[in-house]
Amino acid sequence: MTHQDLQNIARDYGSPVYVYDAAKIASQYHRLTAAFSGVKNLRLNYAAKALSNISILKYMNSLGSGLDTVSVQEVDLGLIAGFSPESIIYTPNGVSMEEIEKVASKGVQINIDNLSILEQFGSKHPDVPVCIRINPHVMAGGNANISVGHIDSKFGISIHQIPHLLRIVENTGMHINGIHMHTGSDILDIEVFLYASEILFETAKNFDRLEFLDFGSGFKVPYKPNDIETDIEELGTKLTKRFNAFCKETGKDLTLAFEPGKFLVSEAGYFITKVNVVKQTTSTVFAQVDSGFNHLIRPMLYNSYHHIFNLSNPDGKERFYSVVGYICETDTFANNRRIAEINEGDLLCFKNAGAYCFSMASNYNSRYRPAEVLWLNGEAHLIRKRETFDDLLHNQVSIEIPVSEPALAEKK
To answer: What DSSP string runs through 92-110?
Structure first.
């Protein structure tokens, strides 16, 4: 996908606009499957929360992916996109028993991460296969908001509660067919991941009817030129060897599962904005664009880095700019960033905009959410229309408000 292709999309669909390169998604998917080609049974479940557009889900299904979901709505999207129920795993956190039962009735694989729901579900539905999410108490990942395997995390059943867990399974007679963990996102230290995996293997020895082990995901992708990333090939070699040895040791023909989200779609995404104003202050040059954290919240929420380049003037002389949005509070995409000289009307392009970008967008400040475009087989396909004013009002209910007495008196 070229710079000219991106400019053409911005011209045809306006800005701001999200663009996804299908070829990059496919290459990431095949890179991961190749890294674990030594595993007899491998299953990749795309994490729908990263980017849940129905066309993206359909594309993932066409690649042979399963689906990792965290809500009944994501489950329903997956079913509409063509995923079979048995290829979907549902891993919620803190949801009601009613929602879990609703999902179970659809034939989807259930993954439970707390003892209370485990006991309730096992008592009512002992014959429904259940996966258990454990918390290995291993700190992995980047920002604290995306590190979910540490001791203070709300996610998973603590490994120190395994005796209690086993008592529930024994008392209910429930069927445990999988063990799952997820330590966090932006994992770099493979040895820490492998250490956490050993905890998963050790836990798995307690269950005789296992069908799969789910190692989560969280692999780091590069966010800037020459950035470091998870060495998927090294991880594939080491974990494949250990997983195959475990299967042989236990006499179980297990499936190795992952739930990649960011790894598959982050680098495939581009977010194009237009510069409304170049504003010089006493100490800073601001490039003010036609978007804000209502469209891309990650820099403000996670302090995440998105490489930004001037699509209109990619070879211009570099200057320092702070790229900011139009939301009426602090709304900064980048501080003092070297970018090719920017003029009003230029198009700025944000990279790594495929994961947790549009999916976290909102209508804050009553702004419209942008369009989404999929670049597939050399053509641009609109996969979400830009919102309109009617969309803002769609679910609102306007009621008659009686005019107060003071207001009437004031009018007189």
So the answer is: -SS--HHHHHHHHTTTPEE
Per DSSP, the chain holds a count of helices (H) and strands (E) of: 13, 18
Residue ranges covered by each domain of the chain: 22-265, 269-388
- Annotated binding site for pyridoxal 5'-phosphate: which residue ranges? 218, 356
**Count of residues for the chain?**
412
Query: What CATH number has the domain spanning 22-265?
Result: 3.20.20.10
Render pLDDT for 298-341 as a digit per residue (tens, 0 to 9): 999 999 999 999 999 999 999 999 999 999 999 999 999 999 99
Active site residue 328: yes
Binding-site positions for substrate read 298, 302, 329, 356
- For 203-239, letters b (16+ CB in 10 Å) and e give bbeebeebbbbbbbbbbbbebeeeeeebebeebbebb
Side-chain-side CA neighbours of residue 252 (13 Å): 20
pLDDT, tens only, 136-187: 888 655 444 444 444 567 889 999 999 999 999 999 999 999 999 987 667 7
CA–CA separation, 263 and 349 (whole Å): 20
Whole-model pTM: value is 0.93
At 330, which amino acid appears? T
Binding residues: 218, 298, 302, 329, 356
Query: Looking at domain 269-388, does it have CATH number 2.40.37.10?
Result: yes
**Nearest-angstrom CA–CA distance, 262 and 46:** 9
How far is it, in rounded angstroms, from Cα 243 to Cα 44?
A: 16
d(CA 284, CA 238) in angstroms, rounded, equals 48
Out of 131, 247, 328, 357, the active site residue is 328
